[in-house]
Amino acid sequence: MFGVDPGLTRCGLGVVEGLPGRPPALVAVGVIRTPPDDDIAARLLAIEEEIERWLDQYQPHTVAVERVFSQHNVRTVMGTAQAGAVAIVCAARRGLPVALHTPSEVKAAVTGSGRADKDQVTAMVTRILRMAAPPRPADAADALALAICHLWRVPAIRARQARQTAGNPLTGKPVARPPLAADPVIGHPVAGDPVAGHPVARDPMVGHPVAGGPVAGHPVAGHPVAGDWA
Description:
38% of the residues lie in helices and 16% in strands. A five-stranded mixed β-sheet has the order 3-2-1-4-5. Helix 1 packs across helix 2 and helix 4 (118-128) packs across helix 5. The protein has helices at 40-58, 74-93, 103-111, 118-128, 138-165; strands spanning 2-5, 10-17, 25-33, 63-66, 98-101, 181-182, 189-190, 201-202, 209-210. It is α/β, with parallel strands linked by helices and 230 residues long. The chain folds into two domains: 2-165, Ribonuclease H-like superfamily/Ribonuclease H (Nucleotidyltransferase, domain 5, 2-Layer Sandwich), CATH 3.30.420; 178-225, no CATH class. It starts with a strand and ends in a 20-residue tail after the last strand.
């Protein structure tokens, strides 16, 4: 598992190996540094070349990249997004799956709290990987935390994907799930079930519940009818 903590000045890289449910092992950790005064094109090229070198050397099965989130410092966000895009392109060029995780997801997976600070993340990464010394700088620890996070989340991700692609047991085809309609009376989504506090009429043809039935003071016309979910 190859974790990338994107950044222009410092881009953390970390590789771990292991299986879900077992303690991961450290393979490699490092940081790509580019001079802030260099041209942006040269900096991104340097990041791309080093990531390619790591991909060649360690042959990971998956690349986990931190998902960029909004910050007050727009310039920092732009640089982080650009470096992250380079890592994603490098993985895509080789046909490797890419996983994106938010900082809160990574913190929660590694420390148990989505609000953990960098020192707590570094301490837990050091403990989980049984390292003799904490990885420095924090970007390196964050890259390892990303790799650990995705490694541990793989079973849940696969289970969710299986549910989403599960077919109809009779036909074997994916089950189409109709979108939720809006209740014109109170604006809450409905999906063929009675809305609390509102009478529900019955479809005289099939006997299925009809959302938005005859409610006192509200005409039936124009109310959406929830589809058959069977």
